[in-house]
Amino acid sequence: MESKADVEIIAKETVYKGYFQIDRYRLRHRTFAGGWTGELVREVFERGHAVVVLLYDPARDQVALIEQFRPGAYAAGWHPWLIECVAGIIEEGEQPDEVARRETREEAGSDPTDMIHVGDYLVTAGGSSESCRLYCARVDASTIAGTHGLAHEGEDIKVMVVDTAEALAMVRDNRINNAMAALAIQWLALEKARVRKEWLGA
After folding, report:
1. Terminal-residue alpha carbon distance, the chain
2. For the whole model, what pTM was predicted?
């Protein structure tokens, strides 16, 4: 399946609009056998699109991570303070790299000196349109500490700096249990030599 002609939107309506939005679609799409499905009714969670920023200090081989309360984790019965990467929503008219730099300042009190666009991915395509653009940002980890965030947005964010090997161990033993951070750290484990050569020339 390759084009919009392979999907027919019968109707679309917004059934909830608050902090987030839910749209209900009535649709059908072409099948691999060459026909069409029956009518499907699906709700799609419209959260917006986001950037995720893995803060990496190549000279010290350390990453800066954040910890904050997540209501979704609480609702799922999990420990609700998650260890994550810096992240933020891309507002209309904003450029993703500008958002990445802004969120790094707001959530970690740091300004990246270089950034690599790692790639883009859908968070949970079965029920949400949200996509993430992942960056690896070069920072000076020695300057990162304390708590950050915007009070008027209800943010209370603690930053931590750990060795890259320890970050990977945190993914392995499930101390880091959210997909965006796990994906970013595993990417760095695969690409660290290339990143350090690019940024340090070593």
Report:
1. 45
2. 0.90
Catalytic member of 153, 166, 191, 198? 153
CA torsion 15-123-31-36 (nearest 10°) is: 10
The domain limits of the chain are 4-46, 49-200
Element (H, E) at 133: strand 131-138
Is 166 among the residues known to form the active site? Answer: no
Label the pairing between strands 86-90 and 49-57: antiparallel
Say how far apart CA 151 and CA 14 lie, in whole Å: 30
User: CATH topology for 49-200?
Assistant: Nucleoside Triphosphate Pyrophosphohydrolase (3.90.79)
For 53-98, the DSSP string reads: EEEEETTTTEEEEEEEE-HHHHHTTS-SEEEE-EEEEE-TT--HHH
pLDDT, tens digit, 9 for 90 and up, residues 113-167: 999 999 999 999 999 999 999 999 999 999 999 999 888 877 899 999 999 999 9
Q: Cβ-count burial of 135 within 10 angstroms (0-12 exposed, 13-18 middle, 19+ buried)? A: buried
Torsion of CA 181, 187, 189, 191, to 10 degrees: -150
